[in-house]
Specification:
- By secondary structure, the chain is an alpha+beta fold.
- Helix content is 19%, strand content 35%.
- The protein has four helices and eleven strands.
- It has helices at residues 19-33, 76-83, 127-135, 190-201, and strands spanning 2-10, 49-51, 60-70, 91-99, 111-121, 141-145, 152-156, 161-168, 173-181, 211-218, 226-227.
- The strands form two sheets. Strands 1, 2, 3, 4, 5, 8, 9, 10 and 11 form a nine-stranded mixed β-sheet that branches. It has a two-stranded antiparallel sheet with strand order 6-7.
- Strand 8 (161-168) and strand 9 form a beta hairpin.
- The model has no long low-confidence stretch (mean pLDDT 92).
């Protein structure tokens, strides 16, 4: 058994592909490239392939991580050429590496970095000062839908916002960079931050006018990845 990680970007219309559909696309690409994935045991075997952290529908990404196990060793050339040509437009392999550790990458994810672009001029108001006041709140209470009951419940998200900075983005628009808790231990969706920030600032815009990119995952690994 050989274990690899692929770092890839996801841009353009492919951002409207769901997590499950993206997994199907990946499986098909490996099959077409002739890269034999290792399968699990049991009545319903499935390829040993997993994304370190699911990406929300409509989000672009700079550095997503795909973890795979193969039957035979695979060269970087095969990943970057044969596999790449079987991916749809918008998915680009950035780099690939080999892992010796059995522990999954998903278990190591602790945070994520995002860029949020709003359709308002950066210099319309003193947004750095507004952002500072937003973070100075002792509590940031939002309504969050519970997974099982589907009921709305008030939750405090302040402690899960690690950093939040404001800057001038493309074409002079407001851009915010976020570092949030992400993973199995503690997780915060950027959607909750966006919603509460819009309420706090009084910015009036439609959700589809706001662009979100996940720039990378924070994985404090206690082992090394051998980048190929």
């Amino acid at each position: 058994m050989f274990k690899y990680v692929l770092e890839f970007s996801k841009r353009g219309y492919i951002k409207y592909t769901s997590h499950l559909d993206l997994q199907r696309i990946m499986k098909r690409a490996f099959r077409r490239a002739g890269i034999e994935l290792q399968y699990s045991r049991g009545y319903n075997p499935h390829p040993r392939m997993s994304l370190a952290q699911p990406l929300s529908l409509g989000y672009e990404a700079d550095a997503e991580w795909l973890e795979i196990e193969t039957e035979e060793p695979v060269s970087a050339h095969r990943f970057l050429t044969e596999l790449q040509k079987n991916f749809p437009e918008g998915i680009q392999i950035v780099r690939c590496g080999e892992i010796k550790e059995k522990k999954s990458l998903a278990a190591s994810v602790s945070g994520a970095v995002y860029t949020v672009c709003f359709p308002v001029p950066y210099y319309r108001e003193d947004f750095p000062a507004i952002t500072k006041r937003y973070l100075e709140q002792k509590q940031i209470i939002v309504q969050k839908k519970q997974k099982k009951s589907k009921e709305l419940r008030e939750v405090d998200i302040r402690e899960k916002i690690r950093t939040m900075t404001t800057e001038e983005g493309c074409r002079g628009k407001l851009r915010i960079r976020l570092e949030l808790d992400c993973g199995s231990a503690s997780n915060l969706s950027p959607e909750l931050v966006i919603r509460s920030f819009l309420d706090f600032t009084g910015i009036s815009c439609r959700r589809y006018e706001i662009d979100v990119t996940r720039n990378g995952l924070i994985l404090p690994l206690d082992y090394a990845i051998r980048w190929m």
